[in-house]
Amino acid sequence: MQLRTLAAFALVVCLRALPAAGAEPDAYLARLAAAHVPADAAAVVVRPLDGGALEWSANEKKPMNPASTMKLVTTYSALHLLGPAYQFRTEVLAEGPVAGDVLHGPLYVRGGGDPHLVIEDLWLLVNRVRGFGIREIRGDLVLDKGIFDPLPHDPGEFDGEEGRAYNVGPDALLLNFKSIAITLVPDPAMKVAHVYVIPEVAGLKAPRTVPGLPGGCGDWRAGLQIDINDPMNVRIRGGFPLACGERLIHLGALEHTNYFAAVFRALWERQGGTWTGKVREGTVSAAARLVAAQESAPLSSLIRDINKYSNNVMTQQLFLAMGAAGGGGPGNPQRGAAAVRGLLAARAIDAPELILENGCGLSRVERISANTLANVLGDAWKSQWMPELMASLPVSGVDGTMKSRNVPAGAAHMKTGMLEDTRAVAGYVLSASGRRYVVVAIINHANARYATAAHDALIEWVYRTG
User: Fold this and answer.
1) Which of 40, 126, 131, 163 is 20 to 30 Å apart from 444, CA to CA?
2) pLDDT tens, 252-303?
3) Which fold has domain 3-84+300-465?
4) What are phi and psi of 29, to 5 degrees?
5) 107-110/98-99 β-pairing
């Protein structure tokens, strides 16, 4: 018997020796073996929710890195601790007098930790300030971030990709995910691609075009070298294949405070306003009066963006907000983790192996077992907020990170997780028989990227057999 065949046979035998009930997913086991993923690197729980007979598990209590499926724990906890109607509030206040249309003194912006404060929201705030009668600010723009503790963040620490938008860290005044969108629009007649930067950032420079390249699209991103060492002077080297059509690159280049100030200045001046001060962080004066406020969409809407599109920084904002809501002080990772642990204990979910760092899964140290994650999903199913959590999950063949998976369309509401050495799925599968199942499957191994098909086969098995 060849070595590869022996390894595959050993994996199947080892997994089948684990405690389990009911039938076994042969296609899942075979595809794990084909990817050379050893038995102790794969954890699974399949559990019925409404009387179904199918049940199977393997390594269910082993602590695993769940990647982005950890977002389920955070969003589930936020629904219970903050409530589905919870809204984040950003306020603009002034202390000095307004003489004519001139504000004499600072303009304060108090952050509420809004995970989805985007450029349109800031545009509304700017226009509301103008509606208050202010056209000129003769003072500083003071950003109050006191709802969160100071949060040191190295965007390149996780994987060296400091400019990538998924590595943006949280902030009490997170604006537009602290990202700039570079849009490349091919112009075959001129043999260039035009470069557009959104939002407008006061003082930021970027090339107006890059050379257009002939041939197919291929790995177009690798052909562009984007230099953000000087974040206010974006340099783009290389060329862009004209066959690619319009493409978009998101970058997280600037520091939070400077980004907010530069975008605010661009919007303010576009509206005809003037501002002669500087930006600084500080605390709103007790004598300041409210000028304008902006409230976020309700939490039930925000978690759809988090789970369907696996937004890391939005999840971290929720994690910190839960810590701040506990009343022990400003939000920080320790208070966020304590809030989640307290909720799990109150819901009688035992999670001794749980390790929380940021609540989003973009972590080398976060751990949870498939059993604990299945218990969270099982409790969520019978809780009053089940519809809100269920509606936030990607739907197989329909949307989010499950849109293109090889799974029956509409059969799975499933959060996915992916790191270099991790593949994970966790959620609910509606079988062809009409029974609903919790399914959690996590792989931690160097070959995990080759085993996505194993998870698809597991979901298919639950759909056909359950």
Assistant:
1) 163
2) 767 899 999 999 999 999 999 999 999 999 999 999 999 999 999 999 999 9
3) Beta-lactamase (3.40.710)
4) -60, -40
5) unpaired
